[in-house]
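User: New here, please read:
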Amino acid sequence: VQAEGSDFLIFRLSVLAGACGKHPQLIEKMIARARAGETLRIAHDVVCSPSSARDVAAAVRQAILEERPAGLYHLANAGSASLCELIQTILLGIGLDVPVLPVPQSEFPSPVQKNRYTPLGTEKGFPLRPWREAILDYCRDQHPGATHHHQEGPDHDRVFTVGVFLGKEKIGEGKGQAKQEAEQEAALRAIAAKNW
């Protein structure tokens, strides 16, 4: 496309989490295997920029509406993680207590040479929120039920309390004046408790 010299917007993306159609991607395949009770073996030495499909779609729309200059754009939520860390975070976010074994990528032979370190920056003016926040929102939207919350106090001074559960065990709790703030704190405490 670039070689043709025409007006173009090319977006380079990383691993996306979002609703998918008939052909499940890596994340959906791993969730299905975890729900079936499989122990997952995930590469710990493949590093990417996990991203929310919703966040990326909003940034693409913004680029089109703002008539951004032609060119190549990297779009990803901020930060980077190994595939293993990503899958552990997702399983925690949806409340699945399944063993995840970190293994080297070399255990998954492929005829194609793949880059193992591919985090993306968004240096051309599309700052997106941190990947963990985006992925936990994906978990809440696509796979609800891993968190339990309640609220107390009058409308003008409401406090939300959110608990993150693996099975029946509460592994993290957070409080905040906004539900999302409490969810974030609870998820971060759960991740710290599981050493992920």
